[in-house]
Each structure stands twice: as C-alpha cells, then as structure tokens.
Design a protein that fits this description.
Blueprint: H1 7-28, H2 33-58, H3 66-77, H4 85-97, H5 111-117, H6 121-129, H7 131-136, H8 150-170, H9 173-186, H10 193-199, E1 210-211, H11 225-230, H12 239-245, H13 247-250, E2 255-256, H14 259-268, E3 278-279, E4 282-283, E5 286-287, H15 293-296, E6 301-302
Parallel strand pairs: 1-2, 3-6
Antiparallel strand pairs: 4-5
C-alpha cells in the first residue's frame, strides 16, 4: 500500500497527448468523421487510461494532499469534454463501502434502466454505447449522497471553460474527438467490457472478477479488480504483486482474459442482463429497518452478507 507520485506524470503526458491529437485533427483539414475513427482507434485508449488515473487520484494514491489529488483528477478530466472526476470520487468510494446496496451504490443499474434494456442484444448494445448517460441519471436514486458540492462546481467550471477555449481557438473537431473518445472509452468498445467484467455475474455466486489480459498494459492494471477491492489502497503498479504473492487465492477464482470476448458475450448472451448483479439488504450484517431493496430488482440475484464480529 502507499502512494505513487509518478502517476501524475503519466496523467500529464496523456492529457498533453490528447490535446495534441485534437490540435492535429483541427489543422489536418480532414472531414469531421475522421475524428470519430481516431477516437475509436486511439483516443478511447488514452481516455480510458485517464479514467483509471482519475481512479488513482480518487483513492488518494498519488499525492499526500487530498486537494492535490482532487486537482489531479480534474486535470485528467480535461480531454473528457464532460466533467466527471469529482462526482466519480463521491460515488465510487461509497461503492467500495456499500457494494450492492441499491440506495447507495451508483455502480448498480437503476430498476427502470434494467427493465428498459432487458436481455435484447440491440438494447444492451445501446446501453453500453450510451453508458455515461445512464450513469448520469442514477444520482437522484442515491438520496443518501449529496451530489452538489464546492468541488463538483469547480470541476464543472474548469472543464466547461477548457471546452470553450478549445472551441473558440480550434473549432469543433477537437471537441468531437474528445467526446467520442469519452464515450468509446467506457462504452461500445472492447474497453467498455471492463464495466461488465467487474461485477456482472458471468459465474455466480462470484460477484467480482478480474481481467488478466494484454490491455492491462494500456490500462494501468485496472483489470486486477478483485485485488483492488481486497486492498483498495494499493496503487496500480503494485496490483499484480498481490496476485503473485497470493496466487492460491486469486488463481482459483473465475477471471477474464479477453475484454473483446466478454463484450460479445454481453451483447449476445440472453442470460446476461442488467439484472445480473448481486444486491444486499443489510449493512455489515445489520438488517436495515424497512429496507425493501430486493423488491426493486425482481429477477436480480440477491445475497445476504455474512455477519461479522
């Protein structure tokens, strides 16, 4: 466990790379759709890596100062076109503490979302394509978490100001590239299968899965998800060491070796849907009074957590 200050330099380099890509596309004279191609083939990988580094800043694994980590995450947000770093921080830390709780865990799909998408290959593809939009509609459900804060507004103002500067100096092409990179990096792209990999039940009752494929090299080891949930303050560069040290635990779990294969499985397997998640109706072994979370997800896998002393 610990901090890795060198992560900042990777983040800075990726932000600069994306901005230079936007500048290059702006001055290339190519048609606007070439920005979409560039985003799918190149930008998605850069933006996905920046999301992983936002995750590192979220867990305060870069700098000692919380404020420095907040600013680091906001810096990573600049090529995303949409402000998300601070709000991700707010909800993601709750996900670690209350995984599977409908009223707290933003990683769980909303009931209406799951019913709307069903198990159809077309609707599941559209869900993944517009995944950021569906995520942005979940906060009103999470009434225990206050969305607005000073830092949320700082994040919004900073990213919007950056977008305006880019638009008025370079035109719309860089923003098309940034926006497409943002959506592809977490959506209908092999990289988007990461969101399926982490907690969708491909082999129940196991509820968290790791990915040990080659794209970890470009994604700062984000595939080591079981390891991360077990030791959430180990920085990205040390996550493979956890599996190496405790291979007898991790190698006996189901894991993924291909995000592309998982993407196709998600789209075409009718047994997989947004209901394929574990839900809990207690907190730390204490039954929540009046809790009816299981009623929200008829058809969703439910699991009671073991009582702890």
């Amino acid at each position: 466990m610990g901090k890795n200050p060198n992560t900042f330099y990777y983040a800075l380099g990726l932000v600069a790379f994306q901005i230079l890509m936007g500048v290059g596309l702006s001055y290339s004279g190519w048609a606007w759709w070439t920005a979409l191609v560039a985003a799918y083939l190149v930008g998605a990988f850069a933006n996905h890596a920046l999301f992983v580094l936002i995750h590192e800043f979220t867990h305060n694994m870069v700098f000692k100062s919380r404020i420095s980590n907040l600013w680091g995450g906001i810096m990573c947000d600049l090529p995303n076109a949409f402000p998300s770093s601070v709000s991700f921080r707010k909800y993601h830390l709750k996900h670690h503490a209350f995984q599977g709780h409908y009223d707290i865990d933003a990683d769980l799909p909303s009931r209406w979302e799951a019913k709307l998408m069903g198990g159809n290959f077309l609707t599941k593809s559209l869900w993944l394509l517009f995944f950021p939009l569906f995520q942005s509609l979940r906060p009103p459900r999470l009434k225990e978490i206050k969305f607005a804060s000073k830092w949320v507004w700082i994040n919004i103002v900073t990213v919007v100001a950056f977008d305006l500067i880019i638009y008025f100096t370079l035109g719309p092409i860089p923003l098309i590239y940034f926006t497409a990179s943002f959506f592809f990096s977490v959506g209908l792209h092999p990289l988007g299968a990461r969101w399926i990999q982490e907690h969708f039940l491909v082999a129940p009752p196991q509820e968290t899965y790791s990915y040990y494929g080659p794209l970890n090299k470009l994604a700062f080891n984000v595939g080591y998800h079981n390891e991360h949930h077990d030791f959430s303050y180990v920085p990205w560069n040390n996550l493979p060491k956890i599996r190496e040290i405790a291979s007898e635990y991790y190698d006996n779990l189901v894991y993924h070796e291909s995000w592309t294969k998982l993407l196709l499985q998600w789209i075409f397997d009718k047994e997989l849907s947004l209901f394929s998640r574990v839900m809990r109706s207690d907190r730390g072994g204490i039954k929540v009074s009046g809790n009816t979370e299981a009623d929200f997800f008829s058809g969703m896998k439910t699991k009671e957590t073991a009582k702890t002393t």
